[in-house]
Amino acid sequence: MTVRPLTARRLPARPGRGATIGWLAVAWLGAYILIVVYDWRLPTRDGTSFGPVWLVGVAVTLAVLRRWRGRWDPVDGLIACTAVGALLTDLVQFNGQLLRDLGIYLRAGEHFTAGTTVYLTSLVTAAPIDKTLYPYLYPPPTLPIVAILAALPRPLVEIGWLAGSAAAAWAALRLIGLGPMAAIAALLWPPFFQGLYVGNVAVPAFALFAAAPWFGGGLVLAATFKPYSGLAALWLARQRRWRALLVGVGILGGLAVLTLPIVGPDAWRAWIEGLRWYAASEPNVPALVSMGLAASIPAPFQLAAAAAAIGWAGLARGREGLARFGVATVVASPSLFSHGFLVALPALLGLRPMALWLALGITSVAPGLAWWLAILVVLVATVLPGLQKTPDDRWPGAYGTV
Length: 402
Known about the structure:
Blueprint: H1 17-36, H2 50-69, H3 74-93, H4 100-114, H5 143-151, H6 154-175, H7 180-186, H8 190-198, H9 202-210, H10 218-221, H11 234-238, H12 242-263, H13 265-281, H14 299-314, H15 318-332, H16 345-349, H17 353-362, H18 372-381
């Protein structure tokens, strides 16, 4: 009989400190999701509760991963929590009004064609049941565009807008380095899915942001619909890409000049006045601000946070700097909905898997102020380099490098 030396026995490995922290992160994310969706109902006949379905979905996903890979790790847990949460949140979106933002655009086009009022002229005192009755906030040069769309057959416009936005989003995701199938899966991330579902211009505008390393002027053109989106154009100045900046400003200025005879100077005055009425209406209707910082902190502190975010973004160069300016745009947004987080995605993709899936998990369910925790993860990662990928791994660009 042979006795093996005690030192030769293979004892089970103890989980490392990193794994322990990782599983604590999984537990935290699970608790977070259950808390924020406690009163959510899925779009079923009996209004099935979100939480129990999410728990079952996570358990099944982990079982599949275990059978497929033969093991679990904390990242698997975060992925399961995030993926199931995102899919169920997308289903909840069907409780809302389809293509409501596109409806706002088309209604504005109809009013412009008819010569009636387009912009706000009084306070909004309650959120309308028909979401297409929300105010139109985009600058006058967009009015001829939406008027043309409003003149076309509605089904054609809706199908074309949805298909075009999805194609632009997929191309943008490829530009920031995702593979073809990963880019398709990313469209299920709630900021993308909600943006597509409601028909918001933020989705195609994200393509201009993603293409900035190749076409910098697009950062300026993004301000055509959402003026604060032009904040990211500061990256061009930071990079001293003056030609791209001038090209963007020239195109935007040319658009304003060319459309002035069509819209008239009164439209510009009405737009500015409409923005004032909108700002005055925000205390009456919190939905006008949604997740924006203005919903929770006074205006001076919001301006200070925006200035700090811009300064933080200016500390970095290259594509990391551009990703930071995307985050700064989110911080500076006067009103913020889930699709407003799209420009923060490159910064999120600069995180290592554990931090990345934690941030994506936070933004996979129940859009609200808690989503700012994902921005906090990005900010913390800048002082804890272990949470970030190496510079060579960031934003590689599927269509080449610049």
